[in-house]
């Protein structure tokens, strides 16, 4: 296992980048702790796979260094970094059996036959393929082949890090849940440093100790699922985490009062007079429909999703989402909304602003 340090790291696919916009991965300075499980989360094109490939050694960065436990590995090969990587689509040896595919990394490292047999049997059980161990990979389905790729990534216990690049894309939904559970169990048992790339927030939040949210080539927040939900440090994090995501509402703020289209909203902290692009961030869970006080809305539709209702409404021409309890009655007279002041976040130019106790 290894502590991974990203030192002044950036990457451009252009030979002579002239501005920050030319960088797929903008400057990063982070330390990722030994033995923790991280998920790299973000939309397509945000730089997740670029960063993973730099860590693994498949891509050399335009600037900066990668250190494993304080040792500079920027110019080291993938093999010398002693990592295992699982890709989005299955990479298996079709002419070999499942058993031989799983054993291959251990044989390459000179492990004893007894240990190889034992470890392959354990991994075969973990990925649910004990019955297929002596079948050739050629005739197996795509999801079965991806399970072999996952197993081959997990078979070695001595790696510095396990890297996963959207490994469950071709796996059916039920098996996705089982394999995520197995990966988490593996992490708890062996304490590998794990980095898991995904654009699926459910995968990220259920797998990782810390989620690394990326946007436009930057890491905009690293935190636990609770931190990302309660205090998104960037409006993108609020939008991307949660279903529905955080409501973002243009406002002016002075002291402990926000004003939205002439209507005042009470805040539980003071912010002084803010300038720039000022917005309020409020989760749908903390918005309440009322018949009297609050901001005026027009309810467009109500979606009953079983556990709760999602109320889609319009606030001064902008969509806003409200979560209501499953049994809550929603009448035509409910055309105003109120916010829980303790749950309102204030953003300036998309970044979270810290207030002072009122």
From TrEMBL:
<dbReference type="InterPro" id="IPR040582">
    <property type="entry name" value="OB_MalK-like"/>
</dbReference>
<dbReference type="GO" id="GO:0005524">
    <property type="term" value="F:ATP binding"/>
</dbReference>
<keyword id="KW-0472">Membrane</keyword>
<feature type="domain" description="ABC transporter">
    <location>
        <begin position="4"/>
        <end position="241"/>
    </location>
</feature>
<dbReference type="InterPro" id="IPR003593">
    <property type="entry name" value="AAA+_ATPase"/>
</dbReference>
<dbReference type="Pfam" id="PF17912">
    <property type="entry name" value="OB_MalK"/>
</dbReference>
<dbReference type="InterPro" id="IPR027417">
    <property type="entry name" value="P-loop_NTPase"/>
</dbReference>
<dbReference type="InterPro" id="IPR047641">
    <property type="entry name" value="ABC_transpr_MalK/UgpC-like"/>
</dbReference>
<keyword id="KW-0547">Nucleotide-binding</keyword>
<dbReference type="InterPro" id="IPR003439">
    <property type="entry name" value="ABC_transporter-like_ATP-bd"/>
</dbReference>
<dbReference type="InterPro" id="IPR008995">
    <property type="entry name" value="Mo/tungstate-bd_C_term_dom"/>
</dbReference>
<dbReference type="GO" id="GO:0016887">
    <property type="term" value="F:ATP hydrolysis activity"/>
</dbReference>
<keyword id="KW-0813">Transport</keyword>
<keyword id="KW-0067">ATP-binding</keyword>
<dbReference type="InterPro" id="IPR012340">
    <property type="entry name" value="NA-bd_OB-fold"/>
</dbReference>
<dbReference type="GO" id="GO:0015408">
    <property type="term" value="F:ABC-type ferric iron transporter activity"/>
</dbReference>
<protein>
    <submittedName>
        <fullName>Trehalose import ATP-binding protein SugC</fullName>
        <ecNumber>3.6.3.-</ecNumber>
    </submittedName>
</protein>
<dbReference type="Pfam" id="PF00005">
    <property type="entry name" value="ABC_tran"/>
</dbReference>
<comment type="similarity">
    <text>Belongs to the ABC transporter superfamily.</text>
</comment>
<keyword id="KW-0378">Hydrolase</keyword>
<keyword id="KW-1003">Cell membrane</keyword>
<dbReference type="GO" id="GO:0055052">
    <property type="term" value="C:ATP-binding cassette (ABC) transporter complex, substrate-binding subunit-containing"/>
</dbReference>
<dbReference type="InterPro" id="IPR015853">
    <property type="entry name" value="ABC_transpr_FbpC"/>
</dbReference>
């Amino acid at each position: 296992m290894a502590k991974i340090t990203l030192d002044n790291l950036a990457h451009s696919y252009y030979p002579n980048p002239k501005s920050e916009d030319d960088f797929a991965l903008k400057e990063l300075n982070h330390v990722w702790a030994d033995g923790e499980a991280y998920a790299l989360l973000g939309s397509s094109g945000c730089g997740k796979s670029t960063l993973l490939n730099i860590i693994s050694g498949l891509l050399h960065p335009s600037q900066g260094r990668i250190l494993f436990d304080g040792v500079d590995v920027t110019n080291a090969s993938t093999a010398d970094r002693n990592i295992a990587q699982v890709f989005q689509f299955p990479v298996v040896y079709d002419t070999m059996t499942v058993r031989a595919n799983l054993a291959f990394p251990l044989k390459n490292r000179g492990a004893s036959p007894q240990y190889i047999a034992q470890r392959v049997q354990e991994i075969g059980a973990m990925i649910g393929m004990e019955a297929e161990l002596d079948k050739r990979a050629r005739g197996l389905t795509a999801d079965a082949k991806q399970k072999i790729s996952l197993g081959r990534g997990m078979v070695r216990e001595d790696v510095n890090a396990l890297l996963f690049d959207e490994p469950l894309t071709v796996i059916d939904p039920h098996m996705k849940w089982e394999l995520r559970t197995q990966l988490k169990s593996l992490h708890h048992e062996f304490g590998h440093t794990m980095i898991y790339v995904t654009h699926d927030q459910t995968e990220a939040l259920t797998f990782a100790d810390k989620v690394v949210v990326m946007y436009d080539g930057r890491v905009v927040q690293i935190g636990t699922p609770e931190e990302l939900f309660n205090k998104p440090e960037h409006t993108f994090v609020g939008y991307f985490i949660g279903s529905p995501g955080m409501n973002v509402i243009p406002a002016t703020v002075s002291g402990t009062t926000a004003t939205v289209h002439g209507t005042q909203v009470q805040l539980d902290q003071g912010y002084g007079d803010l300038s720039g692009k000022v917005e309020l961030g409020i989760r749908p869970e903390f918005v309440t429909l009322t018949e009297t006080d609050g901001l005026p809305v027009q309810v467009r539709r109500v979606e009953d999703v079983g556990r709760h209702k999602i109320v889609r409404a319009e606030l001064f021409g902008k969509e806003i989402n409200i979560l209501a309890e499953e049994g809550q009655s929603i009448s035509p007279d409910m055309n105003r909304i109120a916010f829980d002041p303790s749950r309102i976040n204030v953003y300036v130019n998309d970044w979270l602003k810290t207030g002072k106790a009122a």
